[in-house]
What does this fold into?
Amino acid sequence: MNDDEQRRIIIHRISSHRQAGMGPDGKPVKPINKWIALALLIPVLALMAVLGVFFFAAFLALFAIAAVGFSIRLWWLRRKYQNTMQQTDQNDQKTDDEHTVIIEDAEIIEETEVERKKKKEAKGASSKSDTAGY
It folds into this structure.
């Protein structure tokens, strides 16, 4: 017999013992021992499930608190940024207002270069005609 066949036989014996309800030492397992093991495993599994739900809920609560804290921080920073921008705009308006002189009830007269030359020529011609008459 080679080494491969011997491993097959051992694996076959182990699987046949487990199927027949036999223990690892080859003795049959009593049904009462199966029931005791099952009776002990059910509460342990239930306790593990409850603890799993508890830790999941605790983790979820911590995550929710962190999310709320993070969103409050973002809101605070955005609010601070908007206030800074508004103050900057107001300061810009104040400096513009300080340099601007407001004159009420005034009339602004525009005079172009062409109109000035015409007036000068008209004054010059009238002054020549005034002096020529003397």
Remarks:
- The mean pLDDT is 77.
